[in-house]
Amino acid sequence: MRNRPAYGQSSVDNALLLLHILRDQGIVTVSQAAELLGVARSTAHRLLAMLVYRDFAVENEEHKYLPGPALYVAAVENRPTGEYNAHLRPVMTVIAAETGETVQLAVRTGRWVRFIATVESAQAIRVGDRRGVALPARLTSTGRAMLAELAPQQLRALYQSPGNDGEARLGNAQWQRLVRELELTRHRGYAVNAEDTEAGLTAVGIGVRDTNGAVGAALSVAGPATRVGGARVREIGEYLLQQAELLRLPKDRPE
């Protein structure tokens, strides 16, 4: 029998309970959350806002809350993401300093990417820390850099297979756009997200290979579209290609 810890924080407990409610009910309003948790509406609203910020919930146009991608995107398994972070952080720090923009490291899990490390730009207006955030792979520069490595039949199977994550069974227009984006990525050697995931944000991404040459992660340089656009996108992309040899995943440890 499990007892509630004597040192438990009520705000943490309420946030975790709210995650269970979202997962089980599928949709909840601020009033319902307040009633179920036994807290004020203002408290429930703050908790839901934080869950939205961390991708555990999304708010629709009716101001109701639904489970976010962090609840249904598969966990990163069988990959030492902590080692990836420690191994690549020095070169990520150099890239952030030399480009003046935020550098992100991500891995792909199915049709989604999850950001696992960030080195933020020193500039006042910058892209913030995205650690833990999950986004559709087909829309991000990191995701496109990794998807471009798949064989055509693998890509089709990935996006034509069933699922309830909103990314399964793409419509024809979405599918054709994805195919074009990946062709461009292969031609250039780097991927671009020009405000596809967030208005005013542009990112340039490149695959990060392991010692066998397979892409196991991807790195992006992201910044405001006012700074990262036009010729600057090409400059960053070519710069990342020059850094490719330094961008290597750590060797597998012997078992």
What does this protein structure show overall?
Helix 2 (30-37) crosses helix 3 (41-53). The strands form two sheets. This protein has a six-stranded antiparallel sheet, sandwiched between helices. Strands 1-2 form a two-stranded antiparallel sheet. With 255 residues, the chain is α+β, with helices and mostly antiparallel strands. The radius of gyration is 20 Å and the shape is globular. The chain has nine helices and eight strands. The mean pLDDT is 89.
Features:
255 residues, alpha+beta, Arc Repressor Mutant, subunit A, Beta-Lactamase, 6-stranded antiparallel sheet, two-stranded antiparallel sheet, 9 helices, 8 strands
The end-to-end distance, rounded to whole angstroms, is: 37 Å
Number of helices, where a helix is a run of at least 4 consecutive DSSP H or I residues: 9
Taking pLDDT < 50 over at least 5 consecutive residues as the criterion, the unreliable ranges are none
| Mean pLDDT, all residues | 89
Strand percentage: 15-25%
Largest sheet: 6 strands, antiparallel
CATH topology term of the largest domain:
Beta-Lactamase
Topology, number of strands: 8
Task: Trace the largest sheet across and list its strands.
Answer: 5-4-3-8-7-6
Per CATH, the architecture of the largest domain is 2-Layer Sandwich
Radius of gyration: 20 Å
Q: How many structural domains are formed by the residues?
A: 2
The H-level CATH homologous superfamily of the largest domain, spelled out, is: GAF domain
Q: Give the helix proportion (percent range).
A: 40-55%
Structural class: alpha+beta
H/E topology pattern: HHHEEHHEEEHHHEEEH
The gross shape turns out to be: globular
CATH class of the largest domain: Alpha Beta
